[in-house]
Write a structure and sequence with these properties.
- By secondary structure, the protein is an alpha/beta fold.
- Helices cover 40% and strands 18% of the residues.
- It has 15 helices and 13 strands.
- Strands 3-9-8-7-6-4-5 form a seven-stranded mixed β-sheet, sandwiched between helices.
- Helix 4 packs parallel to helix 12 and helix 5 packs parallel to helix 6.
- It is globular, with a radius of gyration of 23 Å.
- The structure holds 4'-deoxy-4'-aminopyridoxal-5'-phosphate (PMP).
- The site of 4'-deoxy-4'-aminopyridoxal-5'-phosphate has 14 residues, from helix 5.
Length: 443
């Protein structure tokens, strides 16, 4: 029960110890298994090691067709799609895989300009700028938006790309307790009051950074309360919607739509195309002046090769489907499906006695394991039954807060989810991670 770091860290580094090395190897084996097909509801996974009667670890190259509960393919666009894929192939023929140039040189195609307009309209902001990678969007933009003399107040569980961007900015960083508006207010008061006369504001700029849906927790940002505090203390708000844009809200427009927040109240809207749109890259959306400023100053715009044209086309086409502009009702159906799937899966797990964290409607469904030593067994036993799960552990989470992070997709069928629940039920008993009593079956 005491400081967990001290309890576990030596296990990871004591490579000499035979048993410890085996445990470490098995934990490693749960991560980075090669995949040999598209990240659809089912995909092909290479089993790199097999466990030979608990004695030796043998390298194998078996490929299993597994139910995919790990990819962020929220709306199912990452696999061949009847509307997007033909357009993506066409754009590949027309533009090639790469522009081989940065946006300001020869890397802006008509497609890039159309995409930025399409993204701005979709998220509800006057303008947008796109980048080739979601991670870089955070880590390269934050240092352009704020620097020395500025104050960043960051949610304690913000993604690593935000942490890196904040550190690289040179601004002072303070952290508030995860998704706790009252603590955010406390930090703001402290920072504004610290040794200053009441008329003097000690920071050039204050920026509060939050996520729409937290990637490891699956909970929704308490955005309305946080916005009210930002307004009261005149702080800018930066919202990372990597996991919420396209995935939640009546028409897929993210947490603002879901929680009834006016997008005019969010100064900087960031998101990635790697989750709901089945593509890659990231965006910043905001006022025309902000986006213009970023286009003149952001190194990732000036010096990095622009987003790949087929990836850009994939985003544009998937947004059209979400909005129902492809002439079908598939977009709205996908949105209804992901919501139904997420809520069904979450509530069934809870009935079985698992400790599931996060909020309803969120496609990120984390199941707590706590002890990292349970990771290999859970992952391996699920894989044996053709269910592939993503395990999340230190350093992505605190050391003794290991978890299975299920990502639900609109392309999972009811049968897929029922299969996963059956497997989790058995493996949960085997590994001992049902921390609550199961609900009795109702008549
Ligand atoms: N922000 C958040 C909240 C994320 O979870 C991620 C990655 N999962 C990123 C940014 C980085 O995005 P990408 O994977 O598209 O580079």
């Amino acid at each position: 029960g005491s400081n967990n770091l001290q309890g576990y860290a030596p296990i990871c580094v004591a490579h000499e110890d035979f048993y410890v090395r085996r445990l470490y190897l098995r934990i490693q084996d749960c991560f980075g298994r090669p995949i040999t097909s598209a990240p659809d509801a089912w995909f092909d996974v290479v089993e790199r090691y097999s466990n030979d009667n608990n004695k030796t670890l043998k390298r194998t190259t078996n490929i299993s067709r597994c139910l995919n509960l790990g990819s962020y393919n929220y709306l199912g666009f990452a696999a061949a799609d009847e509307y997007c894929t033909p357009r993506v192939i066409e754009s590949l023929r027309k533009y090639s895989p790469s522009t081989c140039s940065s946006r300001v040189d020869a890397g802006t195609t008509a497609l890039h300009n159309e995409l930025e307009k399409c993204v701005a309209d979709f998220v509800g902001k006057p303008a947008a700028i796109v980048f080739g990678m979601g991670y870089v969007t955070n880590s390269a933009i934050l240092p352009v938006l704020i620097g020395k003399g500025g104050l960043i107040i960051s949610d304690s569980l913000n993604h690593n790309s935000i942490v890196n961007g904040a550190r690289g900015s040179g601004a002072t960083i303070r952290v508030f307790q995860h998704n706790t508006p009252s603590h955010l207010e406390e930090v703001l008061r402290e920072q504004l009051a610290e040794g200053q006369p009441r008329t003097h504001r000690p920071w050039k700029k204050i920026m509060v950074i939050v996520e729409g849906i937290y990637s490891m927790e699956g909970d929704l940002c308490k955005l309305p309360e946080i916005i009210a505090i930002c307004k009261k203390y005149k702080a800018y708000i930066y919202l990372d919607e990597a996991h919420s844009i396209g995935a939640v809200g009546k028409t897929g427009k993210g947490v603002c739509e879901l929680l009834g927040v006016d997008t005019a109240d969010v100064d900087i809207m960031m998101g990635t195309f790697t989750k709901s749109f089945g593509s890659c890259g990231g965006y910043i959306a905001g006022s025309k002046e902000l986006i213009q400023y970023l286009k003149y100053t952001c190194p990732a715009h000036l010096y990095a090769t622009s987003i790949s044209p087929p990836a850009a086309e994939q985003i544009k086409s998937s947004i059209k489907v979400i909005l129902g502009e492809d002439g079908s009702n598939r977009g709205p159906q996908k949105l209804a499906q992901i919501r139904e799937n997420s809520n069904f899966f979450r509530s069934e797990l809870q009935k079985m006695g698992f400790e599931v964290i996060g909020d309803d409607d969120s496609p990120v469904v984390p199941i707590m394991l706590y002890n990292p030593a349970k990771i290999p067994a859970f992952s391996r036993e699920c894989l044996k039954q053709n269910v592939a799960v993503v395990m999340v552990a230190f350093p992505a989470t605190p050391l003794l807060l290991a978890r299975v992070r299920v990502c639900i997709s609109a392309s999972h069928t009811k049968e897929d989810l029922v299969k996963a629940l059956k497997v989790f039920d058995q493996v949960g008993d085997l590994v001992g991670i049902k921390y609550f009593p199961a609900e009795p079956d109702k008549e």
